[in-house]
Amino acid sequence: MPKPVIEDAIVQERPQVKQGRHILPSLFRRRMPSQRKSADLEEIEYMPVHDGQEPESQSGGKPPLRLVGFIFLVILPFLASTVYYAFIASDQYVAEARFAVRAVSGAGDSGSSSSDSSGSAGGAASALNMRSASQDAYVVTSFIHSTEILKRIGTKLDYRSMFTKQDADFLTRFRSSQSDEEFLKYWNDHVTAYIDVTSGIITLKVRTFAPDDSVKLADAIIDESEKLINELSVRARNDIVRSMKAEVEKSGKTYGDTLIALNQFQNASGLLSPQMQAKSSGTLLTGLLAKKMEFETRLFVMRQSNAQSSPTYQQLNLTKDSLDAQIDKMKSELTGPENASLAKALVEYSRLETDRMIAEKLYESSQKNYDAVLAEALRKTLYLAVFVKPVRPEESIFPRRVSTPLIILLALIVTWATLSLIWASVEDHRI
What we know:
alpha+beta; transmembrane; transmembrane helix; Putative KpsE/CtrB/VexD-like capsular polysaccharide export protein; Bact_polysacc_biosynth/exp; single chain; membrane
């Protein structure tokens, strides 16, 4: 009989900390390795004796915390998502279209006559040469996900009513009271366009609550995208033609200025062509010098004959003096004072004529370039090639009533396991 009294005394002397540990569920209690063996021995050796009554559970009759967390974090959300996707979520229909932005140009139009006469090969060379326009494709996809396409489509189609139907579920439909910025986010979730980098093909997918609405909206998007491509093509053509035309006008103005300067020089100098004038003056001076030499020879012969007093000698001498005066005048015209010499006029005329020739060549070159660019711009154009048109869907693809709840369940289990590990780590540090 004294033995139970001793055991009760020993039990009363146990620290209160160990009793406090039993407040937490047993699943979350952790002991240090050095304390487990001694604690187990103490529990076995100093087990209190109850008078025929069942011992109380360590958790006070409450379910474990992990089980409660699993129910609230995993089971209930999974059941809620299953009910929503099975009975509440509205059907959504997807209309798909595929197209590409192409550039077309004429090939072989400026070839030689020999290439034109090469039979069927020449005919094939003049066929349309198509290439992928990847940069323009990125422009189209960016346009589809922008507010600009909403403005254009809104003029001919009430696209908002397609997403605000009352028969659609409250989580999926768009609320009409929301702003345009919020609708753009909603639009990008239901209208997608992406590019295949290797082929440049654009895939458009439109998702609405009615099959006919998906097809109408997809057709409207394709029409506006085609208009945008046409605008880009016309704008690019006009820009390059305008640039070349400005170059032609600039070179033409320069050429006209050189012609005006040359005309003013001719009027001021009284010389139509100083080069021709110098050539004719040089020819005339050469003739005068030849005649002067002839008269000097005759006068020399007459002086040798002592005929200075003859009338013929006097006449020849007067003629020679007249020739000398004419020769001096011609020389003064060619190489006289700086402001009146033909040589100076010839230098100025040469400079103006050189400027005129250069300006003329530049004008002709720019005119040829303009004509070539204009012809090439008229041949080349961008267009939208739709090879998969949107078709009315027969079955709804969204929502995925089976796979989506399973994915949610997997995510919830991972979240719950992560939180359990974090809680267990915190309890280890407390002990």
